[in-house]
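Something for you to look into today, if you have time. Could you write out one complete protein record for me, on any chain you like? Leave the record below and I will have a look.
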Amino acid sequence: MSLLNGGVLVVDDNPANLKLMTKVLRGAGYNVRVASSGRMALESVKARLPDLVLLDIKMPQMNGFEVCERLKQDPASRDVPVIFLSALRESADKLRSFAVGAVDYITKPFVPEEVLVRVQSHLNLRELQLELERKVAERTRALRTLSAGNQAVVHARSVEEMLELMGEAIIGGGYPAALIALDDGARCQAGREDVHWDEDLMPDGPCGLYDGDADRPGHSIILPLRLQDRPLGRLLVFADDHHAFSEIEDVRVMVEMAGDLTYGLDTLQAREQHLKARHALEHSLERTIEAIATTLEFRDPYTAGHQKRATRIAEAIAHEIGLDEHRLKGLFVAGTIHDIGKISVPVEILSRPGKLSVAEFEIIKGHAIAGYDIVKGIDFPWPVPQIIRQHHERLDGSGYPDGLSGNDILLEARILAVADVVEAISSHRPYRPALGLSAAVEEIRTHRGTRFDARVVDACLKLIDAGRLPLAEY
């Protein structure tokens, strides 16, 4: 089931252009809406969010740049891709379009086939982004519920209190209704009272069931509660949408929660289950991060490969200086997606050969804050958002985006900064060939103790001298 249903909004003050674009897009099967002015475009977006906007620049009263800026300022529409379709050909106009948030720029007169290819490409990326956001939201909801459920298991002093706290944890995690029914008669129903529960169902394993009607559809998961071979009852969790529990990992988290409840009922194993759930939470977070990182491979293979290689180098350095296992996990997670913010940078800039302009480089520099904004809402057990934001900071305050210096920069970020530079200089880039490991060594040695942490540089150089830095792919 596609997550795209808003269609394409075409904005142009020229009726002939609107007619032509409508014919081209509808001929390719797209749902098309039109607006003949910037104000009409904003009203149309407010009424129903489009999947993509094709936007002219030269329009009276409100030009295309102003329309795009307003769309990007509104949280509801800021992620909708905007493609400028304009007769303006100056580089300054194109750079300004990307600066205000556009993802592409097509000059008039255009070739219909080119427009269709670019529209489909950005719609594919938009659907991928929406699917990723849905998966992350569902995974975060499941993990938050699992964590709260663990707290209920740990703090409950009786079966009745445990069932009540577990019901509250499920509802607090974002699910609208839940039922816990034990074979001995104890039960707790939490959340919405209009949800129908078929309590006669007792599956051998988890299964998703349709619960509700045409007006209030939903999706349920029913999980057996068993202590070894002894059945204890069942746990039922209801969600409002059919996407819930569609991922194996999300079902696994629900199974884990049912397991926590089961073992929580057996007070002798409460502590063991709490630790097990904690490990499952960390593992699930790592899997979620790997899914996020995978999205970059569809858009920018150079960035995706760079993240993996820089992370391996950072892990080797961290091991050398004695970072503990918990912080190593956090460094791995942050390193795996430290450039995720580049998803906000136009592909044309990322893959452009030759030297970037000042304006283009400023756009790229924004990826540190963009990456921080993407992941800051995820409840990590490590300072992942801060590491991502700080990986371009420098000890002497010359870095970005915040100009931090010295110990104000997290050690993990200082490690990643060195690994990032070594990998970037040593490997090929679209705008230059690989400069080689010797150039990377010269860079970090020259700026040891000024831009880069001396202990981190020394550890890196020691690994290079011993042939133990993971550089096999260069």
